Amino acid sequence: MADVAGKERRIVVTVDESEESRHALSWCLENVISSNSKDTLLLLYVQPPRAVYTAMDGSGYLFSADIMATMEKYSNDVAQSVIEKAKRMCQDVKVETRVEHGDARDVICQMVEKLNADMLVMGSHGYGLIKRAFLGSVSNHCAQNVKCPVLIVKKPKSPSDASN
Amino acid sequence: MADVAGKERRIVVTVDESEESRHALSWCLENVISSNSKDTLLLLYVQPPRAVYTAMDGSGYLFSADIMATMEKYSNDVAQSVIEKAKRMCQDVKVETRVEHGDARDVICQMVEKLNADMLVMGSHGYGLIKRAFLGSVSNHCAQNVKCPVLIVKKPKSPSDASN
């Protein structure tokens, strides 16, 4: 059994607006990061691809450049807010942050490789069939395609579960 | 950031004959279990369901009771061998072992719940399309269906990766 304190691990944690994501980060901080470790947490927020907005602008009238800029600003504000909240949770641990655009599945896999991560931690949006069918596939896709170990953390359903 | 040393976690690690499984256990020991923790590792080996042998015995001639007993003994020997090898890897950590019969996907999910596990660690057999299509689904299924966090560990492809 090795002593994790001596290693410098790079752990990517995906963050988003959801409670599941917050829980995954919290679980990771409590269970994976030891208090005297040299780990670096890389908080990764993936914005939807800009192309989504462009595609909605099919008519050429609905979305002016102003509206596009407003939506872009809103999207960036959300990203910053999520990143800031996540950073505040990470006391006494080295943190880097990244905001990227694109399809979450592709971007996460690419960034894990690019950042030379030792581990990927993700929340799982596991409630509701539609939600699971769509969002579940992000963690499935990443678990199958990234080379490093992947930790998928589910948010307990009830408050009593949360205390475990 | 909590200190993991004080918590008593129950971590289920699935083990089988594969190199991937050995790597997953090794990674878990090095990266998840801290040297002064009170964690208990629950090594779980799932044997194929006995029904598989019975189903092969369609003719009533091919497999006598003797052959069935021999196959059963062989299967148990493999299970014991895997469990013993896995136990030898776990120095200075509390270990419990379980051997169960059935479909790995169902059994793992059931046992994680029954054993009240805080985390499930699995190897991923990720090489080759056929193998992935079949074996990959075990980790996918478990990641989607168990309530606790799931760590999927891949074996690095090349020796140079293994040193990371």
Automatic annotation (TrEMBL), chains A, B:
Pfam family of the protein (one): Usp
Top-rank taxon, per record: Eukaryota
Gene3D superfamilies, sorted: HUPs (3.40.50.620)
InterPro entries for this protein: Rossmann-like_a/b/a_fold, Universal_stress_UspA, UspA
SUPFAM superfamilies in UniProt: Adenine nucleotide alpha hydrolases-like
Limits of the UspA domain: 9-154
PANTHER family per the UniProt record, alphabetical: ADENINE NUCLEOTIDE ALPHA HYDROLASES-LIKE SUPERFAMILY PROTEIN, OS05G0357525 PROTEIN
Record-given protein name: USP-like protein isoform 1
Taxonomy of the source species: Eukaryota, Viridiplantae, Streptophyta, Embryophyta, Tracheophyta
